[in-house]
Amino acid sequence: TYCIVKVARGDLLSYDKDLLVKKAREYVEGGVKHILITAQDTACYGFDKGYTLPDLLEDIINSVEGTYTMRIGMMHAKNVPEIIDHLLECYKSDKVAKFLHLPLQSGDDKVLRDMNREYTVDEFIEIVKEFKRKVKDLNFNTDIIVGFPTESEENFENTLEVLKKIRPDYIHGAKYTPRRHTPAARMKQIDTKIRKMRSRILDKLRRELSYENNRKYIGKTLRVLITEKGKGIAHNCKVVKFNWEEGLKVGDFVDVKITDAKTFGLFGKVLL
């Protein structure tokens, strides 16, 4: 009800699976070490062609040789249950980054219905629980919109409570803004001051959760892909900064022992 993308860009269409496997092979043979599997909703990839996202991942894992990782982009929770078992099998591969971007948007069922999200809070929590049970070091990211037209103070508080329960590593927070020609834009809007206040409260919580999650990595050794001098991404796409040693180069995979953690990143020492 609030998003204009479908109106602006039309229905989602899947690229041919064999074409994407071929593209992945070309990238890896050309020296690429990190591939982004991206879409408006990766969870429904292939539904229009008779296959699924796990089918694509499996084909790449089994037929593209080399040392590389794939980061799976945003998934819509309404489409995940159909593929979750097969998808979690794919996550067992070292070639799939232990990263999950699953937008919640609201932690209140009434607001989710008004948003036309097509899942409940409990259904969302079950997906997250299953991923956390099956995927070690999962880096779980979500999105939250505050100030949706029908969001009451109680609805907002419910969202905060759900976030404390599922404890995302990172929360993309946004204040609701109306998009012309959407049903939500025709609803009575919440005062801007209230939206800003809720955004500040959400920002405080997201920083606390991110910091607490990152501190768990202190003392651990992570496999890190160097993306620039003194900086890289771990096997779960956590950003890691580290000391620069002679002989290291961008594109190398190195083991980094984490010695400190900040709100939005980890710090460590390269183990040579």
Task: List the topology elements.
Layout: H1 5-9, H2 17-29, E1 34-37, H3 53-63, E2 69-72, H4 84-90, E3 99-101, H5 109-115, H6 121-134, E4 139-146, H7 153-166, E5 170-175, H8 192-215, E6 221-228, E7 231-234, E8 239-242, E9 253-262, E10 265-271
Parallel strand pairs: 1-2, 3-4, 4-5, 8-10
Antiparallel strand pairs: 6-7, 6-9, 7-8, 9-10
Helix pairs in contact: 2-3, 3-4
Structural features, described:
- By secondary structure, this protein is an alpha/beta fold.
- Helix content is 35%, strand content 21%.
- The chain has helices at residues 5-9, 17-29, 53-63, 84-90, 109-115, 121-134, 153-166, 192-215; strands at residues 34-37, 69-72, 99-101, 139-146, 170-175, 221-228, 231-234, 239-242, 253-262, 265-271.
- A five-stranded mixed beta barrel has the order 6-7-8-10-9.
- Strand 6 and strand 7 form a beta hairpin.
- The longest helix is centred in the last third of the chain and has 24 residues, at 192-215.
Question: Which terms would index this structure?
Answer:
five-stranded mixed beta barrel; 21% strand; single chain; three-stranded parallel sheet; alpha/beta; 8 helices; 35% helix; 272 residues
Quick structural gist:
With 272 residues, the chain is α/β, with parallel strands linked by helices. The chain is 35% helix and 21% strand. The chain contains eight helices and ten strands.
